[in-house]
């Protein structure tokens, strides 16, 4: 397995992952592309893929590094961790998180944090098995 840092040439593949995960949402191709471009241009953001040795895409990881008083230092927020449904249980999610964990340690991050939708029970089991602990409720206020 290998990691591929996202580029603009990967946008169609990334877009297909976004649509796979959040099926309750509809995505405008061009508006989402603008966000994708901003993520790629932001030095504190990351977006990368897991590929097999033949170059096939099996997962995506996106997030950002930020300073927080809660952790008194740098924290890594995992905004998206998506694997192909047919590839779940094959180690791609773990591979992506392992890579991110190492990169976050290099940036002296104190923690990896993420949130996951309430219906995603299977994902919750994966995160807990990986070592994440439930530590808060997530809230949103749509503007």
TrEMBL record:
MF-aspect GO terms: acyltransferase activity, transferring groups other than amino-acyl groups
Record keywords, A-Z: Transferase
Domain of life: Bacteria
Keyword Endoplasmic reticulum: no
Residues in N-acetyltransferase domain copies: 1-143
Gene3D superfamilies noted in UniProt: 3.40.630.30
Keyword check for Transferase: yes
Stored SUPFAM superfamilies: Acyl-CoA N-acyltransferases (Nat) (SSF55729)
Protein name, per record: GNAT family N-acetyltransferase
